[in-house]
Task: structure prediction
Amino acid sequence: MAAPKPKLAVWKFASCDGCQLTLLNCEDELLDVAARLVIADFREASRAVVKGPYDLSLVEGSITTAKDAERIREIRTASKLLVTIGACATAGGIQALRNVKDVNEFISLVYASPAYIDTLATSTAIADHVRVDFELRGCPIDRAQLIEVIGAVLQGRRPRTPSHSVCVECKRAGTVCVMVAHGTPCLGPVTHAGCGALCPTYSRGCYGCFGPMETPNTKSLSRGWSRLGASEADLARVFRTFNADAEAFRREADAHER
Result:
């Protein structure tokens, strides 16, 4: 008798759904995934639900409510492997900007009836609440990296995704450095690779969509930006974007806000 297919579940927390859609945008590869896995719970794609436990859970989004914090613990218990996908799940997302402000002030300005809003003061990564087996960075994630993660799980090995910076991608592609050649501020030297150096390829500075690389030298990069005319406010703002609660970026932003 053939062994049962592994069960895949995809979960959403506070997010825009873009990383979940990356799986649906896998096109031809999606057919192979569906043939090798049971897509047990994926509300973005189907109303059909197969009960857990699950061999692999892909989790998109950050934790922003007490109910979410409880739900992610339940998902962790039901999952053999849990992989976070995207900047919201790995670094709090753009919504983590609330972490350095008074969230109640935002609520009072945005909502007509603030009393109905039940939220935490912070937006935090999944790993701040439960054990995570692997993190897949990006805003949104890279399709090829997602397929690599799923393939690695099926083959019983650790996923092979890059840990170097976007600068390495530029070098490999022969892309001229926008900071050196044009004086364009760029986060490439401290940003995790995975996008194919998309922005520098079109002569624009990297926005840091994939979050900090391993051991990023953010202080050195900030000095370089200062020489290009960036103010302290500019530096604080540039590290508070898609990966606002990633430790390296948060620490550097804090240094310039003080």
Q: What stands out?
A: The chain is about 40% helix and 10% strand. Residues 143-155 form the longest helix (13 residues). The domain at 7-155 is CATH 3.40.50.700 (Rossmann fold).
